[in-house]
Each structure stands twice: as structure tokens, then as C-alpha cells.
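Check the record.
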Amino acid sequence: MSEEKKAFSTLNGEEQQKLIKQLGECLMANDLGFIKVELITETVCNINDKSVEHNVKLSIEKDLPSADEEIAKKFTEEANEITKGYTDIKVNVVSKLSAGDSYSTITKLMPIQADAAMSLEHKKGEVWLVDFWATWCPPCQGPMAHNVSMLDKRGNDWEGKIRIIGIRID
């Protein structure tokens, strides 16, 4: 049987403050005290039927560097436990790759002309161009031909420095 959720806006002020305080303590415990906890209050007035609706939402959102992946996961798990059973609460603290970050090893790739799966491991100083394509995609044909042309012209110069990786999505 699923647990019935309660809207955050139905909590009284003291209950809302208690929940916000718990989330703030969770942020601090995970060294994320710089992330804002936003309380969004919305009042909607329908003049035709003379009704007034009050909505309150809670939001904690932040994109962290990829190096903070474990911190983001730990905080999200703890925050989701605190907010379990409530609606109108958005917790979205994630780590994302950005320029200069190393990639995690990509596993279980099947090369086009091979019988065994392989892994791609990003090495420091190596530049990757990852190109997603599909056989059914006419606009993919031009860029793929360009990639092959670049490799034909510069492949020897790029050895160990630059990799063009085509990933077929179909």
C-alpha cells in the first residue's frame, strides 16, 4: 500500500520551519551550506468565482562539479528521506560534467567490427569528441563523414591526444 503524500503548503508555519531547518542542517552536514533553500509562495485569485488559492513550494537546486558526485548523492538521499511523504518539495542537487572534467570509464561498448565488448577510459590530457549518431538519421551523415575526413588528415598527429568516438544510438 502506497503512503499518502501531504502537500507542503498544508503544513502550518511551525511545521514548515521545522522541515526547512532539518534540510538546512542536512546541507550543512554535507558541506553544502552555500546552497539556497527557496520557499516559493504563490497566491492565485480567480475573480470570476471569487476564490483565492495559496500555494507554498520548497526548492533546493544546484548543479555541482563532477568531483562532488558522492556529496550530491549523499545529500539527495538524506534530503529525500526528510521530505518523504510531502509534495511540492523539489530536491535537485546533482553533479555534472563540465569542460576539463575527466569522464568516468564508459563500459560495455560494442565496437562495430569486434566480437567482444570494450571500455573507454579517459586519460589526463586526452581530448574526446563524442558524437552520437543513428543509421536512420540523414543529418548525422555529414558530421560522420567530416569526422572520418579529420581522422584521415590528422589521425597520426592526434595519436594519444585526441579521440573521436562515434556512439550509435539505434
